[in-house]
Amino acid sequence: MSERFTVIGLTDSRHPRLGENAMREIANHRVFAGGARHRVIVGPLLPEGSRWITVAPPLPETMRALGSVREPVVVFASGDPLFYGFGATLQRYFPEAGYRYFPAFSSLQLLAHRCRRPYQTMRYASLTGRSWQELDRLLIEGEPLIGVLPDRKKTPALIARRLLDYNYREYSMVVGEALGGPEERVSSLRLEEAAEAVFHDLNCVMLHAERFPVRRYGIPEEEFEGLPGRPDMITKMPVRLATLARLGLVNARNFWDIGFCTGSVSIEARLQFPGLLVTAFEKRPECEGIFERNACTFRAPGIGKVMGDFLLQDHRSMAPQGVDAVFIGGHGGRQQDIFEVAAERLVPGGRVVVNAVREETLDEFRHLAASRSFRLLDDLVLKPGSHNPITVAAAEKGTEND
Questions:
Q1: Does the residue 402 lie in any domain?
Q2: Cross-strand bridge partners of residue 354
Q3: What is the pTM of this model?
Q4: Do both 299 and 336 map to the same domain?
Q5: Measuring CA to CA, which of 23, 218, 237, 339 is 20 to 30 A from 142?
């Protein structure tokens, strides 16, 4: 046996139907691992006197136990071990080990079969110990068929409420519970029904759009809720799109919007680049509710919102790997201090952009960029409607090869 780990996938059936080769592997091993639920299922199949290592949090302890074993191990996992499964976790901890896999159907495959729905176009999102980012991205992209793996915190009910909050009402939900086991149940629900329901801890979700989702590109400023009595306190649509282009967000992973006000720049960035991690900063408390309502209206979930003085935040912990683009939408006379923070956190090749109405703002930006050896891009001067001209100024941090 050259493989260090043989990984066997299981459904929730109490009578697993394993192939001849998988059964031979079980008979030839003496050390086994898996969750407590897996041990109940396969217990009768294990050789007498075998050792069992329980896979449970905290995971590093489990991995130390597996790493200390000097003979091959059979690991039992749920469904397909390489589909958001424990097989991928093993490879991350033991990349040089030899592996052999005997997959079962994943829970989402089983659910698609129970519903007799072809699933070759299904896109997937796991919420198991993860953020909402994967699911949010698929919703924004308008995927018509989405398979979701919830966890005990991000339940099907909470997923339904999130879709309702952000106006993704074109979706219906199918929930599969304890698939393959004696408590199996499959329920087709409207989002309103799912939001109030209680489900088995072992579940998966399929979202289906009953009509083609409509995406927005370039939202007119009058459609946003603005600051009361201050209708001009918003980045106008042509300037907003030019700003996003100047920020180079098509190649970015992490974007900061400093001084978000109504949230128009953050929301447009989130909608146009769904894989982008957007963090929006604002110190005026009255903007918080406006931002949240605009994000819901324009179906832009997943924007990180930070209220308070930008300069007092823990910038390093917010972007430990650095940030790719920074928009200074408001600086309150502190452009230099904000630029210094942006310059420190930007990765090589990252960009910082400011929209300048006053010549003093533009001159200071150019001076700050030059003092940090940033490369200034050509200015874009726009005059939206009857408003004053606005200069979209951008500077790029040098790379190691410069």
A1: no
A2: 328, 393
A3: 0.90
A4: yes
A5: 237
